Amino acid sequence: MSLNSYLIVGARPYGEDEQDIRIINGCIAEIGVGLDPENLEVVQAKGRVCLPSFVDLHAHLREPGREDAETISSGSRAATLGGFSAVFAMANTAPVADTAGVVEQVWRIGRQTGLVDVFPVGAVSIGLHGQALAELGAMAASAAGVTVFSDDGYCVFDPLLMRRALEYVKTFDGVIAQHAQDPRLTQGAQMNEGELSGILGLTGWPAVAEEAIIARDVLLALHVDSRLHICHVSTAGSVAIIRWAKEMGVRVTAEVTPHHLLLTEDLVSGFDPVYKVNPPLRSRADTIALREALLDGTIDIVATDHAPHPHEAKDCEWDNAAFGMLGLETALGVVVSAMRDVPNWNWRTLSDRMSSAPARIGRATNHGRPLAVGESAHIVLIDPDQGSLVVAEQLASLSGNTPYAGMTLPVSVTDVFFNGVHQVKGGVLNA
């Protein structure tokens, strides 16, 4: 038997007609009906939806420096179980990933796990302080080959610094991923600003704090003709601005998280810090606008914003709790939950938003490729009829801050192949 060679039998590529898929030496060698096993290991997949495995452009793996919450290894396990083959790790580590040395450290640890490809995201500014540009060129030229830069967790608030960053990455076709949050409008903010925040007595987080930064930055990107990516879009107004910018020819892309597609601000009423997230959960009207924008392509991708925290950072009173929630293992099920009743949503569209488009934005050239002969076998098999119960204690993450605990998601990941290696079998990680 050849290395990393299998015959997947009866799978449904993109949810369509059943096909067999032959994997030889880690690549897709043949797709057809009734293929001969030829002494290959057979993976029975009748009825399973088959997609290219997913790419997450926005996750927090915490290492180096915050290994009590997550490590690259534990985050990679969570990603694999969620159907991902590539994860972009944000720069807010300790030390911050603002030099070639730190991004190479993250990249090398990721390679050692052998579960997913870990692409470090470089900081835009030194120390995430928003005052001086980090070593963008050195990080791009490093072994890690950084293409995405973000101060996520903080907004690049200085317009001159943002302009300079956009100009700099243009020289090597990088992209600036902006955390759109005006800090002066969100000081002490705890939840979405509106009637409910007044009732609950929590400082409101206005939609305009996000929208004003996006409006400024799309104009800057248009001015310098550079690539801009907007992180975790959460309001209907942001969608309208991004839609206008695309019509104007701005080179802007945008992401939405699974939780902003499904969850709404009313969940905050119980003061459970598991629902405290940045940006905050918004109104039902915002959620509907985000779903429509994801369908029509105004929002290009789904990104998890996987944000693990140790229990003491979330198991406390609301005001003192950290922002963020887990997302890697539950992303597929949450997106299906949110989008399944949206007309014209289908598996091909989901595959584009969770695989092809994020790989294209991040220049992860070996990922997000079609299910076709000659491509690397990055494959996820999904049972569309078997739900999966979320049990926080059973998640692969070192943290347990999931808002979906006790929820049964409508689909389940059953098998995952990474470079042709059968990493997940029957929903269980192959140790």
What features would you highlight for this structure?
431 residues; alpha/beta; Urease, subunit C, domain 1; TIM Barrel; 2 domains; 9-stranded mixed sheet; 5-stranded parallel sheet; 21 strands; 29% helix
Describe this structure in words.
With 431 residues, the chain is an alpha/beta fold. The chain has two domains: 6-49 and 374-429, Urease, subunit C, domain 1; 53-362, TIM Barrel (Alpha-Beta Barrel), CATH 3.20.20.140. Helices cover 29% and strands 20% of the residues. It has twelve helices and 21 strands. The protein has helices spanning 72-81, 100-113, 136-141, 159-170, 195-200, 207-224, 236-247, 258-262, 284-296, 311-314, 331-339, 347-362, and strands spanning 6-13, 19-24, 27-32, 41-44, 49-52, 54-59, 84-89, 117-120, 148-149, 175-178, 191-192, 204-205, 228-230, 252-256, 301-302, 379-383, 388-389, 408-409, 412-418, 421-425, 428-429. The strands form five sheets. Strands 1, 2, 3, 4, 5, 16, 19, 20 and 21 form a nine-stranded mixed β-sheet that branches. Strands 9-10-13-14-15 form a five-stranded parallel β-sheet. It has a three-stranded parallel β-sheet with strand order 6-7-8. Strand 13, helix 7 (236-247) and strand 14 (252-256) form a beta-alpha-beta unit. Helix 4 (159-170) crosses helix 6. The longest helix has 18 residues, at 207-224. 55% of the residues are buried. The model has no long low-confidence stretch (mean pLDDT 97).
